[in-house]
Amino acid sequence: MALDIQVRTQEQLKEKGITWKPETIRPTYPKTRDFQPPNIQERRDQIESEFYPQFIQAERPMLCKYSPGIGKTVSFGLAAANLDRPHAFLFNTHRKVRDFLTDDNIDEDAYFHLKGMNQPVHTCCMDAGNEPCEQHGDEKELMCPVYERDSDDDIRERFEILAALVDHEYAHLMTPGIGWECQWSHQFDRVDENRWIVGVHEYQERFEDERDIIIDETPRFKRDIAVWTTADLQKAADLLNGLSDPLANPIADWIETELKNGIDSGNLSACAQPKVEIENDTAETLTELKVAYNEALDSQVRDNWNGTQPCFDAILAAIAETGFAPTACKEAIAGPATLHYCPRCGVVTAGGRCESEDCDWERDSNSILRPPGRRSRHRTSSFAFDAATRSTSVDYRLKFMSMTGYDEMPKDILVLDATGEVEKLAAAYGVSEDEIIVTGDEPIEMNARVTQISNGQYHAGIIKKAAQEDRRLARRIQRSIDMAGRKHSKPLFVIKQSLEYHFDFPDNGVVENWGALRGLNSMMDCDAVMCIGALHPRIDDLRREAELLAETHPDIEVGGEERSSWEESPYPPIQRDIIRPPGKSHGWTVQTKAFTGLTGTLFREVRENEFVQAVHRPRPILSDDPVHIYLLSNVPTELPIDEFVSWEEFIDPPVPENAIDTLVKPLVERYPEEEIEITTSELYELVGDDCTDRTVRNWMDELAEASIVDHIGNTPNNSKIYSMNTDELRSLI
Question: Which end of the chain, C or N, has fewer beta carbons within 10 A?
Answer without folding.
Answer: N
